[in-house]
Write a structure and sequence with these properties.
With about 325 residues, this protein is of the alpha+beta class. About 30% of the residues lie in helices and about 20% in strands. It is built from 11 helices and 12 strands. The strands form 3 sheets. The chain has a 5-stranded antiparallel beta sheet. A 4-stranded antiparallel beta sheet has the order 9-10-11-12, with helices on both faces. The longest helix has 21 residues. The protein is globular and about 60 Å long. It binds flavin-adenine dinucleotide (FAD). Flavin-adenine dinucleotide binds next to strand 2, helix 2, helix 6 and strand 8.
């Protein structure tokens, strides 16, 4: 059995208190703990000495609608609550429902999902296994054991909600020692398996703002080995707006789990604008996504297979939109 290392548990009741606790380098945020706890047990954060729980901070829970129709989802809202809330766009609810298992969705949060650590076949094993070789880049070593020819970390972005929230043009509020700021979910990520978030380590993601989805049609499609429980090995989020004549006025096509960050396929998005979503356009967009992506060879199933599945999953997501 894997055991946790000795840790101090802090349970602040305000965001200000939580931010102050994060000033200490070995302090880590704890929301539902469904990602953090297994990683701590595998000794992926050797310098950690404190977990700062966000669960007693009331203002981080719940879903509200602004007067302009945008949705504010508190970072501590559980995945189950997101999946069940009829005010949340259907494609976001479907993505939440595709995460892990019912037990994990009752415990895991939307904020934790957006900040979930990147995953790696080499690193995400007990440390006793890893001791067979030198540490990898992410563990403080000199090389990536997954892509030894590269000088970068190939851990894979594995959030199901990130691609669809990027597709919707959602933003997040961050609170840190210098106050509050808002950034697009798209800008929360960096394509680097180690420093995969652009936010500072002492910034707390407090809420997610989804713009009013009026007129937007969207879909999320997920590839994984087991339908009942598995991280995504490809996630496709699409959100398209149309004019009254059925012509696409704006659209986003976002791929998850192919790199260390969710990636927008701008070449594919450009094809959509000004066109009707018919089978010809769907085929062109799907092909553009296939050409664009080179899935990292660092998840379940082979990267070659995942690449072949990209146009199929993009096509299916767009067909969902066409059928709405
Ligand atoms: C068996 C299993 C299967 C899983 N399957 C999936 C899956 O299919 N899809 C998927 O996307 N995920 C999956 N996960 C990962 C995880 O359960 C979810 O991503 C979950 O939403 C994480 O939320 P949490 O609240 O538990 O985060 P935590 O574990 O508490 O935190 C995750 C990370 O985010 C940071 N963090 C948490 N909240 C905040 C915040 N408000 N501000 C700043 N940083 C924060 C933490 O410090 C930590 O680094 C799975 C996990 C397990 C164990």
């Amino acid at each position: 059995m894997l055991r946790l290392p000795p840790l101090r548990h802090a349970s602040p009741e305000t965001i200000v208190e939580a931010v102050a606790l994060l000033a200490d380098d070995g302090a880590l945020l704890f929301a539902g703990g469904t990602d953090l706890i297994p990683n701590l047990k595998r000794r992926q954060y050797p310098d950690a000495h404190t977990v700062v729980s966000l669960r007693r901070i009331d203002e981080l829970h719940g879903v509200d609608v602004d007067p302009d129709g945008s949705l504010r989802i508190g970072a501590l809202t559980t995945l189950a609550a997101v999946a069940e809330n009829p005010r949340v766009p259907a494609a976001v609810r479907e993505a939440a429902l595709a995460i892990a298992s019912p037990q994990i969705r009752n415990q895991g949060t939307i904020g934790g999902n957006l900040c979930v650590d990147t995953r790696c076949n080499w690193l995400n094993v007990p440390d006793t296994w890893r001791q067979a070789a030198e540490p990898c880049l992410k563990a403080g070593g000199e090389m990536c054991w997954v892509a030894p020819a590269k000088k970068e970390c190939w851990a894979v972005s594995s959030s199901d909600l990130a691609p669809i929230l990027v597709a919707f043009g959602a933003s997040v509020n961050l609170v840190g020692p210098d106050g509050q700021r808002s950034i697009d979910v798209e800008d929360l990520y960096r394509n680097d398996g180690m420093a995969y978030l652009t936010k500072a380590s002492d910034e707390i993601l407090t809420e997610i703002v989804v713009p009013r989805p009026s007129g937007v049609r969207a879909s999320y499609r997920k590839l994984r080995r087991r339908g009942s429980i598995d991280f995504p090995i490809l996630g496709v989020g699409v959100a398209l707006a149309f004019d009254t004549g059925g012509v696409c006025t704006a659209g986003r096509v976002v791929l998850g789990s192919v790199a260390s960050a969710p990636l927008r396929v701008r070449e594919a998005e450009a094809i959509l604008v000004g066109r009707r979503l018919d089978s010809e356009v769907i085929a062109e967009v799907s092909e553009a996504a296939r050409k664009f992506a080179r899935p990292f060879n660092n998840t379940d199933l082979t990267s070659r297979y995942r690449k072949r599945m990209i146009p199929i999953y993009v096509g299916r997501a767009l067909e969902d939109v066409a059928a709405q």
